[in-house]
Design brief:
heterodimer; A: mainly alpha; two-stranded antiparallel ribbon; 9 helices; 2 strands; B: alpha/beta; Rossmann fold; eight-stranded mixed beta sheet; 8 strands; 49% helix; globular
Chain lengths: 256, 427
């Protein structure tokens, strides 16, 4: 029930963010002096082309994210950065990185990337024990770098294209394939987290509280690590540029 | 005997000059490589990773109705970094299209803060935020008008912060177009005297906005013999290469260090193709000018890119406008928007005269007789013609510090350059 209310609120907010989008047309429109003739360059050969059939919705969500960022997300992150000493912030980042290694492990395995499987396994073993439950990233000091694999990449590895571009509420740029991947990774992660929390022998309410706190802290840590700021590129075409950068970056990741 | 001592004297001087030229050890001798890569961290002075700064903003024209396509541009924004004690306040003006938040600006913020100054970083008058919120005409490019706009926001920023900082005196600097603008701002300050700048340093200025813009406009085509329609194929090729570099190096962030690593490992024996670097530089400039042209066009309802009177909404797709803008150059902007605007006001104005007005030649006399204004430039700056370089050396004389290489702004974070900048202001 609580979830349903949150969802309604979210949709309402996005709707509000999108509301300012229909200005009144007062005077007759006169065609622009410079236009690009249609079909001069086929769509797919345009440098910034992307398959984005849901662009109007995506743009509304993009704007919503920017507003959410400014009034909710970033103030929380700033408070977090102000309260927590730097080493503790690093500890939190390391802790969640270690938990999310599960995604690197399963997806390296699924793609048959044996070196990555071994590296990741070694990292988990090392950081969980010597690194005090993941708080210290000992493995990186030892020269074993963190891999970056997820189920979206696994799907891409087996030839699935990105599908339509998608901007997710709060989470930002994605595409249909990667969103599906994210769901799968999150399910795996949550199963693992539940199993770990079960080990702690707490009662149900405490378990719930712990889980929600971890989710909240994870979100803050994730935003804390991300330096991107909405509308700071100084370009009116930021949406298009971010889209391009996202898709290129994902392509690179899949090829690795 | 006299002649001999004169000879010895000359050899000594020349030797000194040679020695100095040799001693300058900025690592990238090719101006295109320097301009693209910049200065890797290992050649920069040690800087704090993060410093505290305030993001501040205010409304310059409270009455202005900003179109909803720019709904996120509500106020003029800038940053302040301050000392707890009394200190000089330095204003830094960003280069073409750049915001106060760009990586070069954050670099300047850090070095001047570390050297004990209060720092205010200002976006370029050609940036979207400045055009929409702080420019009277919304048509940047007219140096004097831009300087007056800058002077207004500087005065307002000073009003906003003067209660929280103690300022001993005022300094001014800027790089690239921001350097040229600094000259005009200093000129405006001579009349208005709000700041009475004690020292002004111009870092890699353009002499003529028009000719520098033209050089940069043309650069994008250097690797595109068939014209702009080949751009996508070129971009895909370059991205493909970057993908390979990523595989090799395990990460990609396009930072100075990453680019330098790529350069060191992959281009040891064979330099990267100059035309590719030129197209990269031209592309970066084209994006800046696209941003500016679209913004100015919408703000003035000129009907160049966006149909006249069309009310764009906050979630409308701008993709087709982006494509249309991409085919236009800075020179098109000058000829289609900027010049016609002033021509309508001053019918006697010719294009030659307009080009002259937006160059440092306009304030030549002032620059000649102002010992407080210094210049830092490079012999191989890509945006300068040889006449421009002669002009700068002639006008600034001993106040010009010209390095043998560095390209356009490539070396401005190099240790020796930074030392020169700080020394300029401190002594």
């Amino acid at each position: 029930m609580k979830r349903a209310i949150n969802l309604t609120l979210l949709i309402f907010l996005i709707f509000m963010a999108g509301c300012a989008t229909a200005p009144v047309q007062k005077e007759p429109v006169i065609p622009a002096k410079i236009t690009v003739p249609e079909n001069e360059v086929p769509e797919k050969q345009q440098a910034f082309y992307a398959y984005d059939p849901w662009e109007p919705m995506n743009r509304r969500i993009y704007n919503f994210n920017a507003v959410f960022d400014e009034y909710v997300f970033l103030p929380v992150v700033r408070a977090y950065e102000f309260i927590l000493p730097k080493f503790a912030q690093t500890g939190v980042s390391n802790f969640f990185n270690n938990l999310w290694e599960i995604s690197n492990l399963t997806n390296s395995l699924l793609q048959g990337k044996i070196v990555k499987v071994f590296n990741t396994f070694g990292r988990i073993a090392c950081n969980t024990t010597v690194g005090l439950g993941g708080l210290i990233d000992v493995a990186t000091y030892e020269g074993v770098k963190r891999e970056n694999e997820d189920f979206g990449q696994t799907l891409g590895f087996y030839g699935l294209g990105p599908g339509p571009y998608l901007v997710l509420p709060i989470l930002g740029p994605s595409d249909l394939r990667d969103t599906g991947g994210l769901v799968v990774d999150s399910v795996v992660y949550n199963i693992m987290l539940d199993a770990l929390i079960n080990q702690l022998d707490m009662d149900d309410t405490d378990e719930d509280i712990l889980k929600y706190s971890l989710t909240g802290l994870y979100a803050i840590d994730k935003r804390h690590k991300e330096s991107f700021r909405y509308f700071m590129t100084g370009s009116p075409f930021e949406y298009t540029m971010v889209r391009k950068v996202y898709l290129v970056q994902r392509k690179f990741l899949i090829e690795n | 005997m006299k002649r001999f001592s004169l000879l010895v004297f000359f050899i000594f001087i020349l030797g000194g000059a040679w020695y100095q030229a040799d001693a300058y050890d900025y690592p990238l001798k090719d101006p295109y490589v320097a301009t693209v890569i910049g200065t890797p961290t290992e050649f920069q002075p040690k800087l704090p990773e993060k410093i505290d700064y305030k993001l501040l903003s205010f409304k310059v024209f409270p009455e202005r109705d900003i179109p909803s396509v720019f709904w996120y541009q509500r106020e003029f924004r800038y940053s302040l970094t301050y000392q707890k004690v009394e200190a000089p306040l330095i204003f830094v003006i960003a280069g073409t299209g750049s915001s106060f938040y760009s990586s070069s600006m954050i670099f300047f913020q850090k070095i001047f803060y570390q050297a004990g100054f209060h720092v205010i970083c200002l976006s370029s008058p050609t940036s979207m935020n400045f055009i929409t919120t702080a420019s009277v005409t919304c048509l940047p490019g007219n140096s004097i008008a831009d300087a007056v706009d800058l002077y207004r926001v500087m005065t307002m920023a000073w009003q906003q912060v003067k209660d929280r900082i103690k300022v001993s005196e005022f300094y001014l600097t800027g790089y690239s177009l921001g350097a040229s603008e600094a000259a005009f701002v200093a000129y405006v300050d001579e009349q208005k005297r709000v700041f009475n700048f004690k020292k002004v340093l111009m870092i890699n200025p353009a002499v003529s906005l028009y000719s520098s813009a033209k050089i940069l406009d043309d650069m994008i085509l250097r690797a595109l013999p068939g014209g702009l329609k080949d751009f996508n194929a070129w971009l895909n090729r370059v991205l493909g290469r970057f993908g390979e570099f990523y595989k090799e190096m395990g990460y990609i962030d396009l930072s100075h260090d990453w680019l330098y690593d790529v350069y060191k490992t992959n281009f040891k024996t064979q330099s990267p193709k100059q035309e590719n670097l030129a197209t990269m530089i031209g592309f970066a400039f084209r994006i800046s000018s696209d941003n500016m042209i679209f913004t100015s066009d919408v703000m003035t309802n000129a009907g160049l890119i966006v149909p006249k009177n069309l009310a764009l909404g906050s979630a409308d797709s701008l993709y087709e406008y982006f494509r249309a803008t991409s085919t236009t150059t800075f020179v098109d902007y000058f000829e289609e928007l900027l010049f016609p605007y002033y021509k309508a006001k001053h019918p006697e104005l010719t294009q030659e005269k307009a080009i002259q007005i937006v160059s440092l030649h306009q304030v030549e006399d002032y620059l000649r007789r102002s010992p407080k204004i210094g210049l830092m430039g490079n012999e191989d700056d890509l945006i300068l013609t040889s006449e421009d370089l002669v002009f700068l050396k002639d006008v600034f004389g001993s106040r010009a510090k010209i390095y043998p290489y560095g390209g356009h702004c490539g070396n401005m974070s190099y240790t020796e350059n930074v030392a020169y900048m700080l020394n300029f202001f401190k002594n």
